[in-house]
Design brief:
Elements (H helix, E strand, L loop, with lengths): L1 H70 L11 E3 L14 E4 L7 E5 L5 E9 L30 E5 L14 E5 H5 L2 H11 L3 E9 L10 E8 L2 E8 L3 H7 L9 H5 L18 H6 L6 E2 L16 E2 L2
Parallel strand pairs: 1-2
Antiparallel strand pairs: 2-3, 3-4, 4-7, 5-6, 7-8, 8-9, 10-11
């Protein structure tokens, strides 16, 4: 009887121990399962985060070069000592930053203007002068890209124009980095206008450089200009003072008994061959199509039939 009781106690003990083992195994299994789930979730979250970060980095790498190209085509290393600055071509402010280089070419043209420590425009360069193309560019009926020019101090004078260093017709913009107060006659009929006409007639120029000189460090009105450029393989150097050439010629006795250009040029009033739409007005495009070179000045027979919106005595400059 005693032996049977011992066997019974032993059997109950074994059953109890097996049950505890199963509970512990089950608990262990549950813990391992939870750990695996947590690890899997952590791994998925980490993977998603890494993928998101990779996408952001890839987007930044693709966008950053485009942003740099959109700002300017040069960097500070190309023009040491100057900060590269981007200015809207039609900005009318007459203020210039000192020690900066600004692209003053319209569209994709690269014409670089440089200022000194006083904010004076002292140099303009261009590897190639590309003429205005009114068939593919948004040129106004006045022949300009913009309706007005920057108000550089000095242009308020009655005898000074808002003179382009590189004219609209040669692909230049109208902000302060391409404008200087220039004698009106010089700009419209003198050496400045003559130089621009020569470049247009040649279909452009290369190795262009303008050096602008001032009488002091306070004024924004130049005292003289020097242009160097290559036309049809020939290097041209034009140097002239910022004065009225007619007054200079008169003082030198060079204007007496000279035939009047206006009298000789007003030889015809028949605009039918130029005014293609027959409205009595001649546009710049019509004048160019008829073979006339720009600008048309106030002494030209076509001038009365054209729209000189800024009243500077010249259309299509």
């Amino acid at each position: 009887m005693k032996t049977r009781m011992n066997y019974l106690v032993l059997l109950l003990t074994i059953i109890f121990m097996v049950g505890c083992t199963n509970v512990e195994d089950a608990a262990t299994t549950d813990k391992e399962t939870v750990s695996k789930v947590i690890a899997a979730e952590s791994s998925d979250t980490k993977t998603e985060r890494q993928e998101a970060e990779a996408k952001v980095e890839d987007k930044q790498e693709r966008e950053e070069p485009q942003a740099k190209e959109a700002s300017t085509g040069a960097d500070d290393e190309e023009f040491p000592g100057y900060d590269i600055m981007e200015v809207d071509g039609g900005d009318l402010s007459g203020y210039r930053q000192p020690h900066v280089a600004v692209d003053i070419g319209y569209g994709d043209r690269e014409y670089w203007a440089f200022t000194n420590e006083y904010g004076q425009l002292v140099r303009v360069i261009a590897d190639e002068i590309i003429l205005q193309d009114d068939s593919s560019e948004p040129v106004l009926s006045s022949g300009r890209y913009y309706s007005d020019e920057a108000k550089v101090p000095g242009v308020e004078s009655d005898v000074l124009d808002e003179g382009h260093i590189i004219a609209d017709s040669l692909g230049g913009v109208s902000n302060a980095y391409n404008i200087t107060p220039q004698d009106s006659t010089l700009n419209r009929h003198g050496d400045q206008a003559y130089m621009e006409k020569n470049i247009r007639d040649a279909g452009g120029a290369t190795n262009f450089e303008a050096i602008i000189t001032y009488p002091d460090t306070e004024t924004q009105i130049p005292s003289s200009y020097q242009y160097t450029y290559t036309l049809r393989g020939n290097e041209i150097v034009d140097t002239f003072e910022n004065v009225n050439p007619d007054e200079v010629n008169e003082s030198l006795g060079l204007t007496g008994n000279m035939p009047s250009e206006s009298a000789s040029s007003n030889t015809s009033d028949d605009i039918s061959s130029v005014d293609t739409n027959g409205n009595g007005q001649v546009t710049i495009k019509e004048a160019k199509a008829a073979g006339f070179s720009m600008p048309i000045t106030s002494d030209h027979w076509l001038y009365p039939y054209m729209d000189d919106r800024d009243n500077d005595g010249m259309v299509g400059e």
